[in-house]
What we know:
It catalyses: D-serine = pyruvate + NH4(+). Keywords: Lyase, Pyridoxal phosphate. About 45% of the residues lie in helices and about 15% in strands. The two termini are about 40 Å apart. It has helices at about 5-10, 15-20, 35-40, 45-65, 85-95, 120-135, 150-160, 170-180, 195-205, 215-230, 240-250, 250-260, 280-295, 310-320, 350-355, 365-380, 395-400, 400-405, 410-415, 430-440, and strands at about 25-30, 80-85, 100-105, 160-165, 185-190, 210, 235, 270-275, 300-305, 360-365, 420-425. The chain is globular. It has 2 domains: about 5-45 and about 55-115 and about 245-440, 3-Layer(aba) Sandwich (Rossmann fold), CATH 3.40.50; about 115-240, Rossmann fold (3-Layer(aba) Sandwich). The longest helix has 21 residues, at about 45-65. Helix 4 packs across helix 11 and helix 6 (about 120-135) packs across helix 11. The strands form 2 sheets. A 7-stranded mixed beta sheet has the order 1-10-9-8-11-3-2, sandwiched between helices. It is of the alpha/beta class and about 450 residues long. Pyridoxal-5'-phosphate binds near residues 116, 281, 283, 342 and 424.
Amino acid sequence: xxNERLAELASDFPLLNNLVNLEELSWFNPxxxxxxxxxxxxxxxxxxxxxxxxxxxRFAPYLCKAFPELEASEGIxxxxxxxxxxMQESMSKKYSVNIGGKMLIKKDSHLPISGSIKARGGIYExxxxxxxxxxxxxxxxxxxxxxKLYSKELKAFFxxxxxxxxxxxxxxxxxxxxxxxxxxxxxxxxxxxxxxWKKNKLRSLGVNVVEHTEDYGVAVENGREAxxxxxxxxxxDDENSRNLFLGYSVAGDRLKKQFDELNIKVxxxxxxxxxxxxxVGGGPGGVAFGLKLAFGDNVHCIFAEPTHxxxxxxxxxxxxxxGISVQEIGIDNLTAADGLAVGRASGFVGRAMERLLDGFYxxxxxxxxxxxxxxxxxxxxxxxxxxxxxxxxxxxxSKDHEYQSRMNLTLDKMQxxxxxxxxxxxxxxxxxxxxxxxxxSGR
Length: 443
Ligand SMILES: *Cc1c(COP(=O)(O)O)cnc(C)c1O
C-alpha cells in the first residue's frame, strides 16, 4: 500500500496510526450485537456444533487406545480451569485498576496430545477426514466401535493418503501427531517462526517437516500448492476451514458443564468475559462461537493479538478482513508469540463473527514475557508467550467505562464478573526452552 492510500485509510480509521506505531491499544467493537441478530451471519449453527461433539465422542475409544494419556478422561480431549487470585492482585497493582470479580485461566496450554489449543481444531479435522475416507471405502460403519481404527488394516489404508498443512508451529504439531498416529503420510509446512523443538518432535514421529524462511501466509500457500495436484492429498486450510472452527467450538458447551460443576454462575447479573489469543482467527473464533451458543449474550469475547501481528483487529476494524495484511500498513509480523504470528486474518472468521465479538486489543512481546514470569512465579503455571496475551484483557475491560456503559455492564455486574483467560499453549515446551523464556522475563 503506498503512503497516500495508507493516509487515506487512516483518515477513515484513525486507530491505524496507533497500530502502525506498535502501541498497545484496545478497540471495543461498536457493531457488537446480540446472539439473535448476529448468529445468522455465521453460517453455522447449534446442529453443526452438536455434530462435531458427537463425532469426537465416536472417536473417544480410538483416542483412548492410541493415546493412553487420555484414559482418565475416557478419550475426551479437555482442559482444566484454575483460579489465579495472586495474578489478579498483581495485575490490579501493576496496571492501577480494580479488576472486580474473579480471574481464572482455561488451561488449553495443557491439553493432552499436543499441548495447545490446536489439540481441539487440528485433531478434529484430521479425525473427520479419516472417518470420511474409511466410511467411503467401506472399512468403517457409523455404528462400529471406532477403536477399530487402531488396527494394522486401517493404518495401511490411511498410509496411502496424505495430509498437508501450513503452520507457525502448534497447528503443525497437532496435525502431525494425530495424522502420523492414524497412519497418514503428513507434510507440515512451517513458517520461519516455528520453534526448532517442535520440528524435531515431528520429525521423530516420521512427519515430513518442510521449513520456510518466510511467514505463516507463505507456509500455508506452499502447503496448498503441494496438495493441489494430488487427489490423495488433503490440505487443511487454516485460513478458511469450517471444520477446524467447529472442532474448536465444542469448548463452549464443555465449559458450561465445567462451570456448573464448579458453581460458577453466568447470567444477566454475572457476566463472563473471555480473553482469546488470536492468530489467523480459527481457534479463538471457533471457541467464541461455541461460547456464544452456550452462554448467549452473557458472555463477552475479546481477542488479543501481538502489537506486531494485529491482523484480526485490522481486518474487522477496517471491514477489509483478509483483503488487508499488517505488512501492507508497514507492520513486520515479527513476534515472540509464534502462535500468533499471522499477518493476514482468516477469510471467513472475521466476517462470520464480527457482530459477536466485543473487542480486540494488542500487547507487546515485552508485556507477554513479563506476564509469563509473573504466572510462573505467582501461580506456578508455565505458558508460552502467546498464551499470556489474554492476561491483560481484564485490564482493558475494567478501564473502559464507555464500553461498560454501552453494554449496560453496571458496577455491580462488574463486581460479579468472571474473567476467563484462555491460556492457549505451553504444556509441551521443553525445560531449557522454558528456562530461556523465564530468563527473558527477568526471572
Ligand atoms: C494457534 C494459536 C493461537 C490462535 O489460534 P488461531 O487459529 O491461529 O487464531 C493462540 N495461541 C496459541 C499458543 C496458538 O498456537
